[in-house]
Amino acid sequence: MTPVKLNKRSVDGLLPPSKGQAVLWDTEVRGYGVRVLPSGTKTFILQYRNPEGIQRRINIGRYGILTVDQARDQARLFLASVIKGEDPADETRRARKGMTVAEMCEWYLAEARAGNILGRLNRPIKASSLDMDESRIKTHIIPLLGKRVVAQLSVADVEQMQSDVKNGKTAKARSGGRGGRATGGAGVASRCVGTIQAIIGHAKHKGLLATHPTQGAKKLASKKRTRRLSVTEIEMLGKAIAYAEQNRENPVALGVLKTLLLTGYRREEAQAMQRAWVNVTGGFVSFPDTKGGAQVRAIGSAALKVIQGQSEILGSPYVFPSDVGAGPYTAVSSCLDRVCKLAGISGVTPHTLRHTFGSIAGELGFSELTIRAMLGHASQNVTQDYIHIDEALKLAVERTSDEIARLLAKGAAALVRLSEAA
After folding, report:
1. What does DSSP say about strands 278-279 and 284-287: parallel, antiparallel, or unpaired?
2. What pLDDT does 289 receive?
3. N or C, fewer C-beta in 10 Å, the chain?
4. What is the pTM for the complete model shown?
5. Tens digits of residue pLDDT in 171-187
6. Confidence band of 242 (pLDDT split at 50, 70, 90)
7. Are 320 and 271 a contacting pair, CB within 8 Å?
8. C-alpha neighbours within 13 Å on the C-beta side of residue 315
9. Structural domains for the chain
């Protein structure tokens, strides 16, 4: 951005970027600027070279807490200390060792959303993951530990937080337009421990802490999800889907649902699938980003038939576009609940369909390693990268998809026979 003299008007007019960060520099004090994140958070910063000639950038303070002029005065003081041979960043790091949990969580979210903290596979943490982290931070971690100094935390403190979340101490009504209540529970409690431990680990890695004070805290064991549909239940689901199609159920929702059944893809992968990613001739889908990074995944002809049968909306890149707004359809879970109710089946989630795909593949005799590759769990190796020429893996996906399609069709045929008998 073109530098300007920072004032209230110019800072208020600074729009948040869609990703990363945007910086508006001041023309009056060299290196002084304001940074804005996609969340809209604006922070005054100072960029300078320390006495060793190393470029540093430090946060001065949040806009709204500090005015533009107050932050500019502080920037001048920092630059004066540099002239004296000091490094404000070192002083800031020393001060941060006394950060509270709330302050460190704020630091983590700001740095991670700016892409300055790396997660899995040494890549910036995904926005969707950070949204979940922020939800746990605001709902559970800060209410229970926010005022505590991080360096003084103990393993017992973190494990007590876990117990409190599990027992519903932080239960409250959800905000942001979502219904229901955040009730806690063992799964959420365990994930809260993982989140706070990761934040402290990142802070230590960045030099804000000398040691990890809560390393070794134990997480509650998660309950492994083993629910899968039986052959009979798949047939019942096929019958219910056919009935739903005849009774004005959203065709896009049913398209996503059938795709999940026939591919074993994750809910987010199927819902957000774009037409440009689908290679019908090659029999694969090139996902630019998944839970395991960019992947090329085989897809069977039965699933491709569903995809090709979807109506295309001019200007929309999605296979399953939303009928509200310009994004993809995101409510397949609600459709699944309705269809399962018709079928008289309970305890089914989109993950159940994924697990069912893997289980059917196992019953067909495919190995665990092959099934992991089919589901996108395989490590990034030659087979994973060149799945479109791995005929053995394509065959496994095709046979599994065909078997599920056969069972769904069997259930649909039963509905036809009932209709004809009536």
Report:
1. antiparallel
2. 83
3. C
4. 0.64
5. 876 554 444 456 778 88
6. very high
7. yes
8. 4
9. 8-95 (3.30.160.390), 102-205 (no CATH), 231-421 (1.10.443.10)
What number is the average pLDDT over the span 23-30?
95
**Residues 184-205, mean pLDDT to the nearest whole number:** 93
β-strand partners of 392: none
Structure tokens of 56? Answer: 């540093």
**13 residue type, one letter:** G
d(CA 70, CA 60): 10
